[in-house]
Amino acid sequence: MALTRTRTALACLAAFTAGALTTPGTAFAASKADDTALMRAVDVNDSLAARLAAQADAQRRAAGQAKKQAEQARKKTEAEARAKREREAKAAQKRASRSAAEARKRLTTWVRPVSAAISTPYHATSSLWSSGYHTGTDFAASSGTPVGSVGRGTVVQGGYDGSYGNDVIIRMPDGMYTLYGHLSSINVSVGQSVIPGQRIGLSGATGNVTGPHLHFEVRTTQSYGSDVDPVAYLRSHGVSV
C-alpha cells in the first residue's frame, strides 16, 4: 500500500515536472510564429504600397510627358499655321506686285493701231489729197477690223469729220494727238479715257476713200495741218512698224 502511494506521487511529480518544462517553450514558439506572420504581412503591405506608389509615379510621369507632347504638338501646329499664313501673304503680295507691274506695263506700252500692213506711207503725193500729200499712214485693214488706241489717252473727238469720214482723235500723255479715220463704227465717246490696245472702233470706208482702210495720223495739235510722221512717232515709243 505504501509502495503504491510512493509510485503515484512519483508519477505526479514527473508529470508536473514535464509540464513545467515544456509549457514555456511551446508558448515561445507560438509567439515567434505570430511575429513571423505579422512581419510577412507588413512586408506584403509595404511591397504593395511600393508598387502602388511606383505606378502612381509612372502615371504622373506619363501624364506629364503626354502634356509636354501635346504642348509641343500645339506649338508645332501653330508654327506651321503661322508659316503657312506668312507664305500665303508673301505669295499674295508677290501676285499683287506682279499684277500692278503688268497693269503699269499695259498702261505704258504702245501698240500698233490695227493688225494690218501699211498700204500708203506718210507724205506720199497725189491729187487725191487737198494738201497734195498724204498727212498720215494708211493700213490695209478690211471693213470691220478692230482698231485700237496706240497708247493711253483721252478721247477729244469722235464722229463724222468730212473727208476723214467717221474718225476718233485721242490726246496722248506726251501732248500729241492721234487720229483714226474712215471708221465704219465708233466705240468711244468724247472725254473717255482709253488704254493701249483698247478698241475705239472698226475700220471701214467712210469719207474720201477708194476702198476700206485705216487712216492713222499723228498731230502736234488737234487741228488739221500739224501732222508728223506716224511711223517715226510709233517707233519712238517702241512700236515695231
From TrEMBL:
For region Disordered, the annotated ranges are: 59-105
Sorted alphabetically, which Gene3D superfamilies does this protein's record hold? Glucose Permease (Domain IIA) (2.70.70.10)
Q: Where is the composition biased (Basic and acidic residues)?
A: 68-91
Q: Where is the M23ase beta-sheet core domain?
A: 133-224
Give a yes or no for keyword Signal in this entry.
yes
Endpoints of the signal sequence: 1-29
Q: Which residues cross the membrane?
A: none
One MF term from GO for this chain?
metalloendopeptidase activity
Question: Sorted alphabetically, which keywords does the UniProt record give?
Answer: Signal
Give the PANTHER family listed for this entry: MUREIN HYDROLASE ACTIVATOR ENVC, PEPTIDASE-RELATED
Identify this protein by name: M23ase beta-sheet core domain-containing protein
Instruction: Name its species.
Output: Actinacidiphila oryziradicis
Tell me the lineage of the source organism: Bacteria, Bacillati, Actinomycetota, Actinomycetes, Kitasatosporales
